[in-house]
Design goal:
Elements: H1 2-19, H2 32-58, H3 63-74, H4 89-96, H5 100-112, H6 114-120, H7 123-144, H8 150-167, H9 169-181, H10 187-194, H11 212-223, H12 226-247, E1 256-262, H13 266-278, E2 282-284, E3 303-304, H14 310-315, H15 326-342, H16 344-348, E4 350-359, H17 377-397, E5 406-411, H18 419-429, H19 434-448, E6 453-458, E7 465-469, E8 479-480, E9 483-485, E10 495-498, E11 501-516, E12 519-529, E13 532-537, H20 543-549, E14 559-565, H21 568-577, H22 585-588, E15 593-598, E16 617-618, H23 633-636, E17 641-645, E18 651-657, E19 663-668, E20 671-672
Parallel strand pairs: 1-2, 1-3, 1-4, 4-5, 8-16
Antiparallel strand pairs: 6-7, 6-18, 7-11, 9-10, 10-14, 11-12, 12-13, 14-15, 15-17, 18-19, 19-20
Helix pairs in contact: 1-2, 1-7, 2-6, 4-5, 7-8, 9-15, 12-13, 15-17, 18-21
């Protein structure tokens, strides 16, 4: 039936292509350019479908053929071409009006999802998309002939797109869940494990956008000795294993590990898959979501290639505004429950994600377009409710206290002419002396545990003035507030962190310049009262954008984490090469104190006892909001955790404040001053 539907659709699409080329197209002159471009796109993907099938038996074509194919797949949104792409809401509105334009732009973006469907053979998702394209054409044709009024056209077009998402939610959402926990969906795994990685044509088998960056990364990794690659993978896999050990979770009961990474790093991933196999774990790898129903704003979660256009991703971050209502919320949650129930056995043995992030891409200044979809106040509330309830459902089947994770970060060639040097420096940073840092960080924690609060003051234009309240300790011999974070789940090592008390936590957090989730913020200010954000502003975005991107549409968020970074080697490398603004938050958070707004670090696993290497239990796993999980989980969790770091050179002081008012300085003028921690200052000399 699916093949028959697809065949009928193609026949009609060929007719649409022809009709849109006529002097008086049936759909109207304004809409004809979109439908002609859409029909050509759909027919090209059908040709590609046939070519990919042939290549399964005959092998890959020459590199120049693959490069041209890749260019063709992404030419619509790459570079300046995006200015005249219907996937650009501004262009779509210009040609089709303020009401039809955003909907057509949404449809254009959904059509781009056909790339992954064709490469992976997911016709059950692709055929409905082709059909809704035809349905949209028929509506414009009816309007052009006078059968539909403009008002009716807009209403029926919105309804068609709404039900395209809603009706097929029971296909797209379960597929997404299955990709995470079912290793039999092995499209990417087979490419990585079966390809000759020295023949870089393999990169084009994914269907992702491939640039010189991915090719250069793969070439560089191919040039490294096997021992080096094994070591790089071992830091990642052993850190994952150590995370389970520290949390007291039995890894032997798990069977799958989810790997996330960016194309070009396949040699490390292949070695990691082998090392995970020795632990009894099979990999799952899924592509970053392309359909609006499964996306989370503009964030890439999964595996992915280069960005053909970052603005395209940003423009469509709130496409769910087209279909998000109470009925859709309930339908999606219902589908999730049913999918997890069906997949409860593989979900129970899913161990958690192992993430390889990258840094070095050129900073990008996003434009907030008025033509793009945005959420209404009612939809923002619905979205936060849906996300909270979705997290509860997920946690019933993938329990937070029975899984772990690890994250590591590597540079990419865009970081500049010193790429190979920086990569080798990063290897050193990711493998720093575990024992040395364990001892130094233990000294910091011993001082911090004497206090009832920590005060943080900025300098050199940084206006931070924060007081972070600490939980009272009942037994200082056996309890601690801070975790001694070494090279396990969060690589590289180099921080001590806690979940602060909200009561008594207050003040101003200010950062002169920072990149969070690939968005640059200048003069970012967040004011806290009783541990909750009260006012947020920045110099280059209006408050609404800060609320959407940092607060994830919550009216307020708690301070879920306070940490002191100790990885001065990473800071020195960033300053020496002038790449601080290109560093990933995973490393940046270790280069000064950082504050995370949202959930605590122990979200959904607060009842799991965690211990430092010295045997002390970390008791600061809850705050006044997360403790509500026992009565009302919807009020306890926010399903976000965003780190904001003050670099050392903007740091005037960090001091522990004891109950009697005595102060214990830890850092002054950007340098560690607590006795026994002075060795951390040695790295600063390398960046002067």
């Amino acid at each position: 039936m699916l093949e028959e539907r697809y065949s009928l659709s193609l026949e009609r699409i060929r007719g649409i292509e022809k009709e849109c080329g006529e002097s008086e197209p049936p759909c109207g002159a304004q809409a004809a350019p979109f439908f002609r471009a859409g029909a050509e796109w759909l027919l090209y993907l059908d040709q590609l479908k046939g070519a990919l099938f042939a290549e399964q038996k005959g092998g890959l074509p020459p590199m120049e053929v693959l490069e041209e194919r890749n260019r063709r797949l992404y030419q619509d949104i790459a570079g300046e071409a995006y200015e005249k792409s219907f996937a650009n809401p501004a262009y779509s509105v210009k040609l089709l009006g303020s009401q039809a334009g955003p909907m057509i732009s949404f449809l254009a973006a959904e059509l781009r999802g056909g790339i992954s469907c064709i490469y992976e053979g997911r016709m059950e998702e692709w055929v409905p998309c082709a059909e809704v394209f035809i349905e949209a054409y028929n509506l414009f044709e009816a309007a052009a002939s006078g059968e539909l009024s403009e008002e009716a056209l807009l209403s029926e077009l919105k309804e068609a797109l709404y039900y395209y998402v809603s009706d097929y939610c029971d296909v797209t959402v379960p597929r997404r869940i299955r990709e995470q926990v079912d290793p039999s969906l092995d499209f990417a795994v087979r490419i990585i494990m079966e390809s000759d990685l020295s023949d870089l044509r393999y990169l084009y088998r994914f269907g992702e956008y491939v640039t010189e960056s991915e090719l250069k990364t793969a070439r560089f990794l191919n040039s490294l000795p096997r021992e080096t690659v094994e070591k790089m993978a071992a830091v990642y896999t052993e850190g994952y294993k150590r995370g389970f050990e520290l949390a007291g979770i039995d890894l032997s009961k798990k069977r799958t590990v989810e790997i996330r990474y960016q194309l070009g790093f396949e040699r490390i991933v292949r070695e990691a898959v082998s090392q995970f196999a020795a632990m009894g774990l099979k990999p799952t790898l899924f592509r970053a979501a392309q359909a609006a129903v499964n996306k989370r704003q503009h964030l890439k979660i999964g595996y992915f290639g280069a960005y053909a256009n970052r603005q395209f991703e940003y423009d469509h971050r709130f496409d769910n505004a087209l279909f998000l209502d109470k009925a859709f919320k309930e339908r999606k949650l219902s589908v999730m429950r049913a999918a997890y129930e069906e997949l409860k056995e593989p979900a129970a043995v899913y161990a958690g994600p192992a993430v390889m992030e990258t840094f070095g891409e050129a900073p990008f200044a996003y434009e907030n377009k008025k033509e793009a979809f945005s959420l209404s106040a009612k939809q923002k509330k619905l979205l936060t409710e849906m996300n909270a309830q979705a997290a509860e459902i997920t946690n019933q089947y993938i329990r937070g206290d029975e899984r772990s994770f690890t994250i590591i970060s590597w540079p990419v060639p865009e970081i500049g002419p010193h790429y190979e040097e920086i990569f080798k420096e990063t290897i050193k940073i990711n493998t720093l002396d575990y024992e040395q840092y364990k001892k130094i960080q233990a000294l910091l924690i011993a001082a911090l545990d004497q206090g009832e609060a920590v005060e943080i003051l900025g300098q050199n234009g940084n206006r931070t003035r924060m007081r972070v309240a600490l939980h009272p300790l009942k037994d200082r011999e056996r309890e601690t507030n801070f975790e001694n974070c070494l090279a396990d789940v969060n690589i590289p090592l180099g921080e001590v962190f806690t979940s602060p008390r909200l009561s008594g936590t207050e003040g101003l957090l200010h950062i002169r310049q920072i990149y969070i989730n690939e968005v640059e913020y200048k003069d970012l200010s967040i004011r806290f009262e009783e541990g909750m954000t009260k006012e947020c502003s920045c110099g280059n975005y209006e408050p609404r954008t800060v609320e959407e991107n940092l607060l994830y549409n919550h009216p307020s968020l708690p301070l879920g984490e306070f940490a002191i970074g100790t990885n001065t080697a990473a800071y020195a490398m960033a300053r020496r090469y002038g790449i601080m603004e290109r560093m990933q938050i995973l490393i940046i958070e270790k280069t000064g104190p950082h504050f995370a707004i949202g959930d605590t670090c122990y979200s959904h696993a607060e009842d799991v006892k965690v211990y430092n290497p010295d045997g002390k239990e970390i008791v600061a796993r809850d705050n006044e909001r997360s403790i509500k999980r026992k009565e009302n989980p919807a009020e306890a969790y926010f399903n976000c955790h965003t780190d904001i770091t003050i670099p050392y050179d903007e740091l005037g002081e960090i001091a522990v404040v004891k109950a009697d008012g005595e102060r214990i300085p830890l850092i002054e003028n950007g340098r560690f001053v607590l006795p026994g921690t002075e060795a951390l200052n040695e790295a600063f000399e390398k960046c002067l």
